[in-house]
């Protein structure tokens, strides 16, 4: 390939930005961005995967490029697929277009769709992989977690004071953070396939757990972790605004709720339900991403089990000094056992700060 590394990085960064446009609308497919550059270094086609079942990023970019794709270099954030699903294989579209070289950020980890780079190389296309993989992976973190492990990617979101309190000593917590932060939470919900909360949150706050954002897809699925089936039939989380799934224990007695509400029965664990079993079941239902909005007890259980991939904290410029901590017991008895995070972003949201961080295992290999 004739291009210099800096040029390849420039085009791949553009592909990563394009991929991000598909966040929240492609599940259970990945987000993918693509840029086609002709032999003179001119961008002749761009595209991203906009929705599940729609054309893939490579196809969109190649259509835009037309005949100018012949002899060009194609930059794509995920290895082109080699199988026929709801759309045809991208490798065939690339070959028909006469593309001379393909630059890939992240290999496809699935058995079904991988192998595209090998096929292209066998057909005479120059292939380079791993270009800006460290920038392309975070944009597609949800799908990559799902593809590599079979379980959904989990983001724990919480709102707290600067001293880490989610409620005052008398239990009041509405509202700690600003209207701007609350609007941003609805954006987060809209990008996820499921919102998970515990029965404690349902009983205390009676939340809707819906994404009240204009133009968003239906959902997300609302999941209540309720070991003993205590969710009241009148709970707002059971309304018709979005689908709801109750996760109860195998020995729970849900009564009339069993006839009215979708339920899954799971094994009990030490302090509630088996959360790994819950995520496995959600994965089987093609839930790729989960937003954990439960209280401190449920959040601590997810962290202790190593099931949190990302943390999004909304911190208000408020101090309580006492009250409910944002996080409960999380399996940490000593400093050495602390859950270490890598901060990705700190952004002002109105008067608050939004801190986004990844856990240490968030980019792990197949489990």
Entry summary:
The protein has 367 residues and is α/β, with parallel strands linked by helices.
**Low-pLDDT runs:** none
Along the chain, the helix and strand elements come as HEEHEHEHEHHEEHEHEEHEEEHEHEEEE
What value does the average pLDDT take?
A: 91
Residues in helix, %: 25-40%
SS strand fraction: 25-35%
Rounded to the nearest angstrom, the radius of gyration is: 23 Å
The tally of helices reads 11
The number of E-state strands comes to 18
**Distance linking N and C termini:** 35 Å
User: Given the C-alpha coordinates, what overall shape results?
Assistant: elongated
- Strand order in the sheet with the most strands: 11-10-9-8-14-6-15-18-17
The biggest sheet, with number of strands, parallel, antiparallel or mixed sense and barrel status, is: 9 strands, mixed
Tell me the structural class.
Answer: alpha/beta
Question: Which key terms come to mind for this protein?
Answer:
alpha/beta; 27% helix; 18 strands; elongated; 367 residues; 5-stranded mixed sheet
Structure, described:
- The protein is an alpha/beta fold.
- It is built from eleven helices and 18 strands.
- It has a nine-stranded mixed beta sheet with strand order 11-10-9-8-14-6-15-18-17.
- Strand 10, helix 9 and strand 11 form a beta-alpha-beta unit.
- Helix 3 runs parallel beside helix 4.
- The longest helix is centred in the N-terminal third of the chain and has 16 residues.
- It is elongated and about 70 Å long.
Ordered list of secondary-structure elements with their pairings:
Layout: H1 5-20, E1 33-37, E2 43-48, H2 57-65, E3 73-78, H3 90-97, E4 101-106, H4 116-122, E5 126-129, H5 133-139, H6 141-149, E6 153-161, E7 165-167, H7 179-191, E8 194-198, H8 199-205, E9 221-225, E10 244-249, H9 257-260, E11 262-266, E12 268-269, E13 272-273, H10 275-284, E14 289-292, H11 296-304, E15 310-316, E16 324-325, E17 341-349, E18 352-359
Parallel strand pairs: 3-4, 4-5, 6-14, 6-15, 8-9, 8-14, 9-10, 10-11
Antiparallel strand pairs: 1-2, 1-3, 7-16, 12-13, 15-18, 17-18
Helix pairs in contact: 3-4
């Amino acid at each position: 390939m004739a291009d210099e590394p800096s040029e390849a990085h420039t085009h791949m960064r553009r592909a990563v930005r394009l991929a991000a446009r598909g966040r929240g609308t492609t599940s259970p497919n990945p987000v993918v961005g693509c840029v086609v550059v002709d032999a003179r270094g001119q961008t002749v086609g761009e595209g991203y995967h906009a929705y599940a079942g729609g054309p893939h990023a490579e196809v969109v970019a190649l259509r835009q490029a037309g005949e100018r794709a012949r002899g060009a270099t194609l930059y794509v954030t995920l290895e082109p697929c080699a199988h026929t699903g709801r759309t045809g294989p991208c490798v065939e579209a690339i070959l028909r277009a006469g593309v001379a070289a393909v630059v890939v950020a992240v290999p496809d980890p699935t058995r079904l769709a991988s192998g595209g780079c090998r096929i292209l190389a066998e057909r005479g296309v120059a292939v380079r992989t791993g270009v800006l993989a460290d920038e392309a992976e975070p944009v597609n973190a949800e799908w990559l977690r799902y593809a590599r492990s079979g379980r959904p990617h989990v983001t724990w979101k919480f709102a707290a004071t600067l001293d880490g309190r989610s409620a005052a000593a008398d239990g009041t917590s509405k509202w700690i953070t600003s209207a701007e932060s609350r609007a941003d939470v609805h954006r987060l919900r809209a990008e996820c396939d499921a919102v998970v909360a515990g029965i404690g949150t349902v009983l205390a706050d009676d939340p809707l757990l819906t994404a009240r954002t204009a133009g968003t897809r239906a959902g997300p699925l609302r999941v209540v972790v309720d070991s003993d089936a205590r969710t009241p039939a009148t709970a707002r989380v059971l309304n018709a605004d979005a689908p709801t799934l109750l996760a109860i224990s195998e020995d729970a007695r849900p009564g009339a709720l069993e006839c009215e509400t979708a339920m899954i029965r799971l094994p009990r664990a030490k302090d509630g339900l088996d959360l790994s079993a819950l995520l496995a079941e959600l994965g089987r239902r093609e839930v790729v991403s989960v937003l954990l909005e439960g209280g401190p007890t449920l959040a601590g259980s997810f962290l202790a089990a190593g099931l949190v991939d990302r943390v999004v904290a909304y911190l208000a410029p408020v101090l309580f000094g006492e009250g409910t901590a944002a996080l409960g017991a999380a399996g940490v008895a000593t400093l050495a056992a602390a859950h270490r995070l890598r901060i990705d972003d700190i952004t002002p949201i109105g008067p608050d700060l939004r801190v986004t961080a990844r856990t240490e295992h968030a980019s792990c290999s197949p489990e």
